Fold this sequence. Notes:
The chain is an alpha+beta fold.
Amino acid sequence: xxxxxxxxxxxxxxxxxxxxxxxxxxxxxxxxxxxxxxxxxxxxxxxxxxxxxxxxxxxxxxxxxxxxxxxxxxxxxxxxxxxxxxxxxxxxxxxxxxxxxxxxxxxxxxxxxxxxxxxxxxxxxxxxxxxxxxxxxxxxxxxxxxxxxxxxxxxxxxxxxxxxxxxxxxxxxxxxxxxxxxxxxxxxxxxxxxxxxxxxxxxxxxxxxxxxxxxxxxxxxxxxxxxxxxxxxxxxxxxxxxxxxxxxxxxxxxxxxxxxxxxxxxxxxxxxxxxxxx
Length: 278
Ligand code: ZN
C-alpha cells in the first residue's frame, strides 16, 4: 500500500490512480495525513477494499507523507563506509540525535541554504504505525507503518561547533528534513531489509548504498530505541546515510546556490530539490 499527502489531504494509491481517503471513506478517516497513524491498523484494513474516484495529483502539490511527527529520531554513523569517511570507528551502540519537526518539508521544491557548509545525507526513513515500547527485534517490523525517502541535510559548521557537537541544531534548519514522495508499507518490498539508496548533485552520483549494509538494521534500531522511550504512531526514524557525503571528500564539497539534489530509495521514489541562497 502507498499513501501520499496532496496539498494537505491524505491519498491512497489504487490501481493506476490515487483516491482521496476522507471522501472515499465518507468521513470515517480525516483528510489530515498525520492523523492516520493513530488508526493505522483500522486504516489498512479499510484500504484493502477501498474504492473511489481518482484524483489528479500534480507533483508540485505533494507534501511530506508524514507532515508533523511528534518525535524525529535520527541515527549517525550507521554504515561502515560512512563511519570510515567521517574518521570514526564503527560504533558499538548507535549515536542518536533528533531533527526538530519544523525542519520537515515535502519531496520537491526549493530549500533555502543558511550560512555555512550544507551537506547531503540520503537516508531510508521508517515511520512508526503502532505504539512501540520495549519491542523485540522480531516484533519490530510489525510496528512500522511504512518506509519513505529522507534527506538528513546538515550544516556542518554548526553541527561540529562548540565544546560538544550540536547535531540536532545543525540538522534542523527549515527544509532540512525533506520526506516523500510517498509512504510505502513494508509488505510491498521484495526484501524490505535490502533496498538501494543514493543521491546525486547536478546529475553527478555522489552516494549509493544498500540498506542491507546498515550496521543497526531497522528492527535493531526499533528494539534499541523503544527500549529507552516509547515510539509513537507517526514518529519518524532517519536510519543513517551511506558513504559519499561532501564532508568526507577531498577536497570537501558542499551544496551551492542553484544546485539540484536528487535522492532515491528503491521501491519508494525520488526526492528532487533545488538549493537556493537566501
Ligand atoms: Zn544522517
